[in-house]
Structure formats: structure tokens, C-alpha cells
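This protein record is not my work; I was only asked to verify it. The record follows directly below this note.
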Amino acid sequence: MTPASGAVPAGCLTLKARVELLEPLGSDKVVHCGLDPAQEDPLVAHLPGTSRVREGENLELTFPAEQVHLFDRATGRRVYGSARTARGR
């Protein structure tokens, strides 16, 4: 989620999303979010269990770009976006 200061740290991405499904797992919550009403594939985020998110809520998610994992819809295989990430296969 976006820091309370509202400032996005360098090297981070921010996405606006709507919580579609919330799975409380004790110490964690798995949050399934829709990025766009026309988009079929959800964004799945793992948040601390103490997060106060609710289904139907709109969020701004902020995360380090190097921790993003993208997958090809047709093959299900991970897409590598940078040479640094590709070397780490």
C-alpha cells in the first residue's frame, strides 16, 4: 500500500486496484485485485494480516519494481523484463 507520507520511494511502482477477493491467512492476507474492469486477470498481493483492507475497497499498491513477476497469458511462463532478472533465472 502507498506509504502514509504519500511519497513513492525511488524504484517503486504504484497501481490503483480494487479488492475483489480477500483471503485472511492469519499472519498474512492474500488480496486479489482488479486493475481495470475490462481486465480478466487479477493482481494478487500478499499483505500483512494486520492490514485493514476490505473487499470492494479501492487501493493504491506500491511495491519495488524488481519484485514484480509477470506471466505470459498464453503459456503461463514468467516474462523476464530486464537483463538483470533474466540472468537470475
Notes: The CA atoms of residues 27 and 89 lie 29 Å apart. Residues 1-5, 82-89 have pLDDT under 50 and may be disordered. Residues 83-87 form the longest helix (5 residues).
